[in-house]
Design a protein that fits this description.
Layout lengths: L7 H10 L4 H19 L2 E4 L1 H12 L13 E5 L27 H8 L3 E6 L33 H8 L5 E6 L5 H7 L2 E4 L19 E6 L2 H12 L15 E4 L11 H16 L3 E4 L5 H26 L6 H10 L4 H23 L6 E5 L24 H4 L3 E8 L5 E8 L4 H13 L38 H10 L6 H19 L4
Parallel strand pairs: 2-3, 2-4, 7-8, 7-9
Antiparallel strand pairs: 1-3, 4-6, 5-6, 5-10, 9-11, 10-11
């Protein structure tokens, strides 16, 4: 690897001082991608000529005109518009003329601060589902073990930062899409408060939950990117002091199915680090957890179908199986259930804010980001089979930060999640910087062997699909008729999965009280 800096912050200081040139860093990043991207599948497309031209322009800029991200090579998730090339959302069915030749406002803010865009990174199709082996797009691979998933949906961002192809990137998050790749790849990622950053020029999935967020090596790096994205620097200079910070811990979640022993041990060790830094660790009940997961799922899939259903009906086979099966299930969510989920969402968010502000409250809530290390691609799971510790913060709109906190016995990353009240990003980042001042997990960099040839993805339709008649509570005719009513006529394999997902959605959606 030719990347000479450990963090984005170090590289930014060197660029602004003139100790290193932007063209040098961009050329190194492009060379590293030539070597590793055939294995890792980080990029959908790269912009070498445009990036080198932008780097030359940065190097010629007088010192007085250099912004906070002067000359820094960054990557952008491929659901965001950039002037260099169209966003694909990793979907053959996407309209290539959407926002063509324009920058999304958030991308434009990064450029105004001096950033250089290297290229567009791989993602889950329209930010939902696993890769479809039938599609021509690169398959994202985890740099710690290329046989494993990187986490979705900002997949290429997580793998690129962990392997050193770039030190920072811009992603989006609807149920964990910034934090999950950060967790499984061993990097840092910030889900911002809903509405803090503009999502114009970002292809929607669930507009009432979609947010953008920075991904990088460290919390300090994420803060540097956040300041550029908001235009409002908010971090105090000097070492982060978090003495007296109240950290609420819902300890009951550690006993939930799927939380591995190494994850539990790393999390308790992370709490010890925070206590030694002066934090007050206190138990914090989170009774809203299950209901918020249900609200996130009902809202996300219903809104995904609202956004994409017309195109799905027109070109069903042009969409990947992972995305189309989940989005179609959203078309089976009745309006009254969606509205009930929104009322529940408001009630739970208000109750949670009230408890945070009460005598037994907290400044941040700490959980693992994900209950286990990255799974092998060969061990696929059905939607909802893994405990999702990230999705609860999307319906509330709260910000949340994912930080490396350890590794399992095989060296696979484990991650700490800190969440807080709306607009508390700088509190979370300050806590993250303090934690990373006494730990070094975020500085580990994967070293994948470019000669490795990972196994091809398992094709779900090569296995015998469950017959639709085996899905409890849904007669095949009933599912087919309901989908036909919204313009979709899937085949048997699709039908079985859509029915199973819809049944789970309906069951989850009925649980919350109005």
């Amino acid at each position: 690897m030719q990347q000479p800096f450990a963090t984005l912050t170090e590289a930014a200081c060197a660029l602004r001082s003139g100790a290193v040139g932007s063209r040098e860093l961009v050329a190194a990043a492009l060379a590293d991608a030539d070597a590793l991207d055939p294995l890792l599948g980080v990029y959908v497309t790269r912009f070498p000529e445009q990036a080198l031209a932008a780097a030359r322009a940065a190097d010629s800029r007088p010192a007085a005109e250099r912004g906070p991200l002067h000359g820094l090579p960054l990557a952008v998730k491929d659901n965001l518009a950039t002037v260099e090339g169209p966003a694909t959302a990793q979907s053959p069915a996407h309209d290539p003329h959407w926002w063509r030749g324009l920058d999304a406002p958030a991308v434009a803010r990064l450029r105004r601060a001096g950033a250089v865009v290297l290229g567009k990174t791989t993602m889950a199709e329209y930010a939902m589902g696993r890769p479809d082996p039938a599609h021509p797009f690169p398959v994202p691979r985890n740099p710690w073990d290329p046989e494993r998933w990187t986490g979705g949906s900002s997949t290429g961002n997580g793998a690129g930062i962990a392997s050193g192809l770039f030190l920072g990137a811009l992603g989006s998050d609807t149920s964990g899409s910034v934090r999950l790749p950060a967790a499984l790849c061993g990097t840092t990622g910030l889900k911002t408060t809903f509405g803090l950053l503009p999502t114009d020029g970002c292809l929607p999935l669930s507009p009432s939950q979609d947010v953008l967020g920075p991904m990088a090596v460290s919390a300090g790096d994420c803060g540097l990117l956040l300041d550029a994205l908001t235009g409002q620097p908010g971090r105090a200079p000097g070492p982060a002091d978090i003495r007296g910070l109240r950290v609420g811990v819902p300890y009951g979640l550690l006993d939930a199915p799927g939380v591995t022993g190494p994850c539990r041990a790393a999390f308790l060790d992370a709490l010890r680090n925070l206590r030694e830094l002066g934090c007050e660790i206190r138990e914090f009940e989170l009774p809203e957890f299950g209901e918020l997961l249900a609200v996130n799922a009902v809202t996300m899939l219903a809104e995904a179908f609202s956004e994409h259903g017309e195109r799905l009906a027109a070109d069903w086979d042009g969409h990947g199986r992972g995305f189309r099966r989940l989005a179609a299930a959203g078309g089976l969510v009745p309006a009254h259930l969606y509205l009930r989920a929104q009322r529940t969402r408001e009630r739970l968010t208000a109750a949670l804010l009230e408890r945070l502000d009460g005598p037994a409250g907290a400044d941040v809530i700490a959980t693992p980001t994900w209950p286990a290390p990255a799974r092998p691609y060969a061990r696929e799971t059905a939607p909802g089979d893994e405990l999702n510790l990230t999705a609860v913060w999307n319906p509330t709109g709260f910000p949340a930060l994912a930080l490396p906190m350890g590794a399992d016995p095989a060296g696979l990353p484990l991650s700490l999640q800190l969440a807080g009240r709306p607009r508390s990003e700088h509190t979370l980042l300050r806590a993250g910087e303090a934690f990373q001042s006494v730990t070094t997990w975020h500085l580990r960099r994967a070293a994948p062997d470019p000669r490795h040839r990972p196994a091809p993805l398992r094709d779900p339709d090569r296995e015998e699909p469950a017959p639709a008649s085996s899905i409890p509570g849904h007669a095949p005719a009933g599912i087919e008729e309901a989908l036909a009513a919204v313009g979709i006529t899937p085949g048997p394999a699709d039908l079985a999965v859509v029915g199973a997902v819809a049944r789970g959605l309906l069951a989850a959606g009925r649980r919350p009280a109005a």
